[in-house]
Amino acid sequence: MPVPCPAHLIPDATGTGTDAFHDAYRNAMARNAVFVAIEFEARRRWTVKADTLTAGPGHTVADAVNEAVRDAITRLVNSREVDLDAYAGPVYFLIHGVESEERARELAAALHAALYGDLEPLRRAVPSTP
């Protein structure tokens, strides 16, 4: 998985039990990369997950980036595009209730890029309201 990861390469951690999730998480940890994945939920929605701990102690996320991510997730919740129980970091990120796999991949890739300091994909995926 490249860093940052494009949408079509975001791992799908859907699987029996937690094996697929743990495999993707261990893979990110072995490469000292920010973990990112999507999972299909039982109620026919998708979840986006990201965790910066897998990148190791040398990886830092600027306060301005965390604020931009938090604001984007808040906009998604307020527009009812995602569920209210979204978790917006600063280390672990969780977005439940995404309607389609394509949108989950787009959000996951944008979040991954942001956690490496590139906010432009996040701005495109979750534009600010005028």
3D structure, described in words:
The model has no long low-confidence stretch (mean pLDDT 93). The longest helix has 16 residues, at 63-78. The termini are far apart. The protein has 4 helices and 4 strands; from the N terminus they run αββαββαα. A hairpin with a 3-residue loop joins strand 3 and strand 4. It has helices at residues 19-30, 63-78, 101-114, 120-125, and strands at residues 35-40, 46-51, 87-88, 92-98. The protein has a 4-stranded antiparallel beta sheet. By secondary structure, it is an alpha+beta fold.
Report on the biggest sheet: 4 strands, antiparallel
**Largest beta sheet: strand ordering:** 1-2-4-3
**What proportion of the residues form beta strands (DSSP E)?**
15-25%
Low-confidence stretches: none
Percent helix range: 25-40%
Overall morphology: globular
Radius of gyration based on Cα positions = 13 Å
Q: Distance N terminus to C terminus?
A: 35 Å
Tally of DSSP β-strands = 4
Number of helices: 4
Mean pLDDT: 93
Helical/strand content category? alpha+beta
Question: Would you summarize the structure shown here?
Answer:
With 130 residues, the protein is α+β, with helices and mostly antiparallel strands.
Which keywords apply here?
130 residues; alpha+beta; four-stranded antiparallel sheet; 4 helices; globular
List the helices and strands and how they pair.
Blueprint: H1 19-30, E1 35-40, E2 46-51, H2 63-78, E3 87-88, E4 92-98, H3 101-114, H4 120-125
Antiparallel strand pairs: 1-2, 2-4, 3-4
